[in-house]
């Protein structure tokens, strides 16, 4: 160990580091150059810088006899980590006094002493700088002072976010819930925090020194961007002060918000259309009765009353669907009970609209086993399935209801002879507000809630419902419930 530090060499080398920064260099190249300058000036055998985050540390820069440690992690509960993060900011340490695995590795490399200083920003430790020596002589006050000064310089680099932290897990940056990136004048990533990796699926290694995986909005502006996998990001950007022409970018996943906004817009569009039709008809017939009562025959009056009643029932069913789709439908706290599925189906058919009842063909075996579930909800399930079957089939075609059972399950099916369903649509048909292609929507209006409610009701009773094309044309909806 030299008796005095080579300050002229240190100042000359430090000038080179500053020139690198002024020319736009940042991050690891600058940090490594700083260590290369410091090592001979301090008479050290090696230099190393450990970057710390919430989950521990990692050697991100090393020179000389310490190069073998480059990339080595330090767990947050490692005794060496605890020692480095406690006590005075600047100190000298005898390797033999450390108890962790790193100490044994250092001793095995012939390194016995080190001058250590933490790099801190506002009391937060971002890393520690180490000057390592092979002999038993302690680093003096001058060596410790210079190491402390250099550690402050490194901390300043972290404060400027000039490509540091390397792994994006500095104590402040890592705590952010939003993705954070810093890009240079070429829009290449210099900083990438853990939330950025989580939001985009790109690790730090995959992101650093590469272009952003999404378009960069102008400074001070916000942009919503859809990623190739279908997720939506909300991106903002702003210029960082200083000569480096760096820009900070924040982003978050707003896919759920986009979906909610889409559902809300679709809800308003669909319900306004579906509510308008029966209300218009009811108002028209009511106005006719009010304005032309005396000139109408008894038959005309009764027909107007029937239409008003039918449309009012449609309106009531639509309101029930809308309310049920916004609430938890199903049996609630009532426990599942065995019930006679055949008798429950026959009873539910009685309450169906007359135009549906005349088209139904029931084929229910007399020895049908009991089902386990919530009998009152069966009426809603059958109403929605038969209404759906009637809507997508000719007015004079039959709708068949059949049932069967085995040792574990009891099932019933609603089969129509209508337009059928494409195999790729058998699952999407149960999505809320979904109604197939736009051509289907024009020809077959509806809120797109019936099958969505059916699936929720049935699955809450430990059953399941499915759709499939019917042989010969049409669709089969099948509900399976546990056997009682």
UniProtKB/TrEMBL annotation:
The lineage of its organism: Bacteria, Bacillati, Actinomycetota, Actinomycetes, Micromonosporales. Signal peptide: none annotated. It is found in: Cell membrane. Residues 270-484 form the Histidine kinase domain. Keywords: Kinase, Phosphoprotein, Transferase, Two-component regulatory system. It catalyses: ATP + protein L-histidine = ADP + protein N-phospho-L-histidine. This is histidine kinase. Residues 172-210 form the PAS domain. InterPro entries: HATPase_C_sf, HATPase_dom, His_kinase_dom, HisK_dim/P_dom, HisK_dim/P_sf, PAS, PAS-like_dom_sf, PAS_4. Its main location: membrane. GO terms for cellular component: plasma membrane. Gene3D superfamilies: 1.10.287.130, Histidine kinase-like ATPase, C-terminal domain, PAS domain. One of its GO terms (molecular function) is phosphorelay sensor kinase activity. PROSITE patterns: HIS_KIN, PAS. Its EC number is 2.7.13.3.
């Amino acid at each position: 160990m030299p008796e005095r530090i080579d300050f002229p060499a240190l100042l000359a080398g430090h000038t080179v580091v500053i020139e690198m920064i002024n020319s736009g260099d940042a991050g690891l190249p600058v940090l490594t150059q700083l260590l290369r300058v410091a090592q001979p000036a301090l008479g050290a055998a090696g230099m190393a810088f450990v970057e710390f985050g919430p989950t521990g540390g990692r050697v991100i820069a090393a020179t000389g006899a310490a190069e073998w440690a480059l990339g080595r992690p330090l767990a947050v509960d490692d005794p060496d980590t605890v020692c480095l993060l406690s006590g005075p900011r600047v100190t000298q340490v005898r390797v033999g006094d450390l108890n962790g695995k790193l100490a044994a590795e250092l001793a095995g490399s012939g390194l016995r002493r080190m001058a250590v200083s933490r790099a801190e920003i506002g009391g937060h430790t971002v890393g520690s700088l180490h000057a390592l020596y092979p002999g038993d002589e302690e680093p003096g006050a001058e060596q410790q002072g210079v190491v402390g000064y250099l550690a402050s310089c490194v901390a300043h680099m972290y404060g400027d976010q000039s490509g540091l932290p390397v792994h994006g897990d500095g104590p402040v940056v890592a705590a952010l819930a939003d993705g954070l990136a810093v890009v240079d004048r070429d829009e290449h990533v210099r900083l990438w925090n853990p939330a950025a990796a989580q939001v985009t699926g790109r690790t730090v290694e995959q992101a650093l020194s590469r272009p952003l995986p999404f378009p960069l909005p102008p400074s001070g502006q916000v942009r919503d961007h859809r990623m190739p996998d279908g997720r939506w990001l909300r991106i903002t950007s702003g210029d960082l002060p200083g000569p480096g022409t760096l820009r900070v970018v924040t982003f978050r996943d707003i896919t759920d918000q986009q979906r909610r906004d889409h559902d809300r817009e679709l809800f308003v569009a669909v319900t306004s259309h579906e509510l308008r039709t029966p209300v218009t008809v009811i108002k028209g017939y009511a106005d006719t009765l009010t304005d032309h009562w005396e000139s109408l025959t008894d038959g005309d009056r009764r027909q107007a009353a029937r239409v008003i009643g039918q449309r009012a029932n449609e309106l009531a069913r639509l309101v029930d669907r809308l309310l049920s789709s916004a609430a938890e439908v199903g049996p609630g706290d009532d426990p599942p009970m065995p019930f006679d599925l055949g008798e429950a189906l026959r009873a539910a058919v009685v309450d169906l609209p007359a135009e549906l009842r005349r088209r139904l063909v029931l084929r229910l075996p007399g020895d049908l086993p009991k089902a386990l579930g919530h009998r009152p909800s069966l009426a809603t399930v059958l109403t929605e399935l038969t209404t759906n079957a009637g809507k997508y089939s000719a007015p004079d075609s039959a709708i068949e209801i059949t049932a069967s059972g085995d040792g574990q399950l009891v099932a019933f099916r609603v089969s129509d002879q209508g337009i059928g369903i494409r195999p790729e649509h058998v699952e999407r048909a149960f999505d809320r507000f979904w109604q197939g292609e736009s051509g289907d929507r024009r020809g077959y209006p509806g809120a797109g809630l019936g099958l969505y409610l059916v699936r929720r009701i049935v699955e809450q009773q430990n059953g399941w419902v499915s759709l499939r094309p019917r042989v010969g044309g049409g669709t089969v909806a099948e509900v399976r419930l546990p056997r009682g």
